[in-house]
Design brief:
Structural class: alpha/beta
Strand order of the largest sheet: 7-3-2-1-15-16-17
Shape: globular
Distance between the termini: 33 Å
Number of strands: 17
Radius of gyration: 28 Å
Length: 647
C-alpha cells in the first residue's frame, strides 16, 4: 500500500470514490488522445518581428489548416486574408474597419470560418483542455459553437442565433480576436526554444514578453542568454559583453527603451576620452534602425571602443583569478608591445591596427582607470536595478536549463564537449573532474548559485565568474569552440588569428554511433530518440543540411538573425513534432508586407501514431492513475473515510 499520509493529502482533492474514479476515467481518456504538437525554435537573436510571425502563424501550419478546410471553397486571396486575420487580429480588424469592410455580413462569414478552423486544430484535445484555453468571457459561447450538430435543424438555428447575438450586441470584433488567439494557442501545444534569445537583433525584450505569455514553453540556455543572465548577476565582464554586442549592432532600443539601462554615463565618458579618435575599427553594424534611441554613428563607435577596452581588462582579471580556466593565452592586453605597437598571438607577432588607448597603463594593462571603475560600477547598478530585465531573467531560470530530455529527444544549445577520440571532455569543477551529463548538471547548479545566492555567500563569486567562462571558455557546452577571438577581430589584420576551432563534438556528432553514445549518457536510447541542437548556422546555400547522423541529430539554427542570412541563404527553421511525424519548416527572410508560406518537409514518419500514453506526460498520468487507484482502494478498505457531499 502506498504511503497513507500521501493518500490522505490526495483525498483533499478527490474526497470520494466517485470523485477519484471520475478522474481516473478522465486521465485514461487523455492517454488515448494523440500527442500535442511540439515546436522547436533556435537562435532567435532578438528578431522579434520574424519570431512573433512564426509563432502566430505556427510556422505556416495555420495556413495549411485553412487550405485543408476551405481550399476547395474559397479563393486563395481570401485564404491569405483569413490567415493574416488569425495572425494579427487587432491590426487587421482596424484596417478593415477603416476600409469599410468590417460589415455584419463579413463578421458572420468570418466567425463561421474561424469556428471551422478552431474545430480542426482542437480535434486532438479534450473538451476540457480546449475550454481552459478559451477566454472566460466567451468560453461558453465558443464551446457551444465548436460542438454544434449540423444534422440537427434546431441546433443549426441555435448556432445562427448565437452568431446573430454576438454581432447584434456589438462584441463581434472582440469575439473574432478571441477565436484567433484560441486558434494560435491550440496549434502549438508546447514550445521549445533551443537557446540564444538575446543579442544581434533589435528587441529580445519583446520576444521575452511573448514567451512569458505563452502557455507552455521551455528554454535551453545559449551562450548569449548566459551572458545576459551573467550581467543580471552583476558579473562585470558579462555587463561589458552585453553592452559591447548591443552597441556594435546599434541595438540601443533593447537597452534603453526595453530594459531602461542608462547609457548616458558611457556616452559622456566615450565622447570625452576618445574625442579625437575616429574609432574606425568600431563602426557599428546597422542591420536595424533604432526607433526610440537614435545615436550618432560616430559616438556609437566611441562607445563601442570604450566598453570593449574595459571588457578586455575585466576579462583578464577573471582569467588571473581562475588558473583552472586555462585561458592565459587570452591575456592579450598583456601580450601587446606598446613600444613597438605589436601583439603576440599564438607565439607570433602581429602589428596592432589601433594603438590609441588613453586609459591603458602599459605597465599594468589590466588595471581599470579610476574613471573606468566608476563608470563600470554605474553600469552594473543599472543592470541590477532593471525590473523588467530581472523579471525576464527569473523566467529564464524557472523555465530554462542547460538541457532537457523530453519525449525521447535531448535538447541543448551548443554541444556536449568531446575529445578527438570520441570520449567526453573533462573539466575541473571545484576540484572534481566532470564530463558528459555530470558536467552539465554541475554547471546548471552553478548558474543558479550565481543569481540566487546572497552577495555575501563565499560561493557566489566563483559561480558568477563561471557565467563569463560559459560565454567563451573552451570547455563550455554552450560555446563549443577553442577560443573567442574578439580581440583579434578588432586589432589584428591577419585573418588566420580570427579562426575559432569548433569542439570535436561538431564533427563526431555527424556519426550515428556518437549520437547514440550521447543519448545513452542522458538515459535515452533506441528508435525515435534524437538530439536537437542549435548554435551553429546551417548553410543551406553551401549544400549543408540540418538533418545529420542518419536522422539522429537535428541542427535547427538556420539564420533567423539577419546577421547570418547571407551565410545561410534562408531565415531559420522550425522543427515540428506532431503525432504522425517530424517535419522541418524552412523560412524565407521575413517581410511584413508579404505573406510567405515556408517550405515544410517531413523528415521522419513514426511507425505508429504517437498517443499521449507514449509521451513523458503519459508516464506522469499513469503514475497519477496508480495513485488514484490506491486512493479508491483505501476508501473501500476503510483506511480513509469518504467526505460525502451534503445535498
Amino acid at each position: 500500500m502506498r504511503d497513507l499520509a500521501y493518500l490522505k493529502l490526495l483525498a483533499r482533492d478527490y474526497p470520494s470514490v466517485k470523485a477519484a474514479s471520475s478522474e481516473i476515467i478522465n486521465l485514461m481518456a487523455i492517454c488515448g488522445l494523440p500527442k500535442g504538437t511540439e515546436y522547436f525554435f533556435s537562435d532567435l537573436h532578438g528578431e522579434y518581428e520574424a519570431f512573433i510571425h512564426l509563432l502566430r502563424s505556427a510556422s505556416g501550419i495555420i495556413r495549411e489548416k485553412i487550405r485543408d478546410t476551405f481550399g476547395h471553397i474559397i479563393p486563395e486571396e481570401e485564404e491569405v486574408e483569413l490567415a493574416n486575420l488569425i495572425y494579427y487580429p487587432d491590426r487587421n480588424l482596424a484596417r478593415l474597419t477603416q476600409e469599410g469592410k468590417n460589415t455584419e455580413d463579413w463578421q458572420r462569414i468570418t466567425i463561421y470560418r474561424l469556428v471551422q478552423i478552431c474545430k480542426e486544430v482542437s480535434s486532438k484535445y479534450t473538451r476540457s483542455k480546449v475550454r481552459k484555453k478559451m477566454p472566460k468571457e466567451f468560453a461558453y459561447v465558443i464551446d457551444e459553437l465548436l460542438h454544434v450538430d449540423y444534422n440537427d435543424d434546431n441546433k443549426r438555428v441555435y448556432y445562427g442565433e448565437i452568431i446573430h447575438t454576438v454581432i447584434e450586441t456589438q462584441v463581434a470584433d472582440t469575439f473574432i480576436v478571441a477565436l484567433c488567439v484560441l486558434i494560435q494557442n491550440l496549434t502549438i501545444d508546447s514550445l521549445h526554444i533551443i537557446g540564444d534569445i538575446f543579442d544581434r537583433g533589435p528587441r529580445a525584450d519583446i520576444i521575452m514578453n511573448e514567451l512569458m505569455n505563452f502557455h507552455d514553453v521551455d528554454i535551453q540556455w545559449g551562450n548569449h542568454d548566459i551572458s545576459w543572465m551573467g550581467a543580471a548577476t552583476g558579473n562585470e565582464a558579462c555587463v561589458c559583453n552585453v553592452l559591447r554586442i548591443a552597441i556594435s549592432y546599434n541595438s540601443f532600443d533593447v537597452l534603453e527603451d526595453g530594459y531602461g539601462i542608462n547609457l548616458r554615463p558611457l556616452s559622456m565618458f566615450a565622447a570625452r576620452v576618445y574625442k579625437d579618435d575616429p574609432c574606425a575599427r568600431f563602426i557599428p553594424k546597422i542591420l536595424d534602425e533604432n526607433i526610440y534611441d537614435v545615436v550618432d554613428p560616430g559616438l556609437v563607435a566611441k562607445m563601442h571602443k570604450a566598453i570593449a577596452v574595459i571588457q578586455f581588462k575585466v576579462e583578464g582579471q577573471i582569467i588571473k583569478r581562475h588558473p583552472e580556466y586555462e585561458m592565459d593565452d587570452r591575456l592579450l592586453l598583456e601580450a601587446v608591445d606598446f613600444k613597438n605597437k605589436t601583439v603576440t598571438v599564438a607565439r607570433k607577432e602581429h602589428p596592432m591596427l589601433d594603438m590609441n588607448f588613453p586609459t591603458i597603463d602599459p605597465e599594468n594593462p589590466l588595471k581599470l582607470s579610476k574613471e573606468e571603475e566608476e563608470l563600470l560600477h554605474t553600469l552594473v547598478l543599472s543592470f541590477k536595478h532593471s525590473g523588467l530585465l530581472h523579471k525576464h531573467i527569473r523566467f529564464m531560470y524557472s523555465n530554462g536549463a542547460l538541457y532537457k530530455c523530453y519525449n525521447g529527444n535531448l535538447l541543448y544549445h551548443g554541444c556536449i564537449p568531446m575529445k578527438a577520440d570520441g570520449s567526453f571532455e573533462v573539466m575541473n569543477c571545484g576540484g572534481k573532474l566532470l564530463s558528459g551529463k555530470a558536467l552539465m548538471d554541475y554547471i546548471g547548479e552553478e548558474v543558479h548559485k550565481a543569481y540566487f545566492l546572497k552577495e555575501d555567500d563565499p560561493e557566489k563569486g566563483n559561480a558568477r565568474d563561471l557565467m563569463w567562462y560559459l560565454w567563451c571558455g573552451a570547455k563550455s557546452p554552450v560555446f563549443g569552440k577553442d577560443r573567442m577571438t574578439t580581440f583579434e577581430h578588432y586589432f589584428v589584420e591577419d585573418k588566420t588569428t580570427h579562426k575559432e576551432r569548433m569542439n570535436p563534438y561538431y564533427q563526431l556528432s555527424q556519426k550515428v554511433e556518437n549520437c547514440e553514445r550521447i543519448l545513452e549518457e542522458f538515459g535515452l536510447s533506441g528508435d525515435g530518440t534524437h538530439i536537437i541542437n542549435g548554435h551553429v548556422p546551417v548553410k543551406i546555400k553551401d549544400g549543408e543540411t540540418p538533418v545529420k547522423a542518419g536522422g539522429k541529430l537535428f541542427i535547427i539554427d538556420g539564420g533567423l538573425s539577419k546577421a547570418y542570412q547571407r551565410h545561410t541563404g534562408i531565415a531559420g527553421y522550425t522543427l515540428i513534432y506532431n503525432s504522425h511525424h517530424l517535419a522541418l519548416a524552412e523560412h524565407k527572410p521575413f517581410d511584413p508586407k508579404k505573406e510567405s508560406t515556408p517550405k515544410v518537409s517531413i523528415v521522419e514518419k513514426v511507425k505508429n501514431r504517437v498517443m499521449v500514453a507514449d509521451t513523458d506526460k503519459g508516464e506522469e498520468l499513469r503514475a497519477r492513475i496508480a495513485d488514484l487507484k490506491e486512493l479508491v482502494a483505501a476508501y473501500r478498505r476503510g483506511d480513509i473515510k469518504e467526505q460525502m457531499s451534503r445535498s
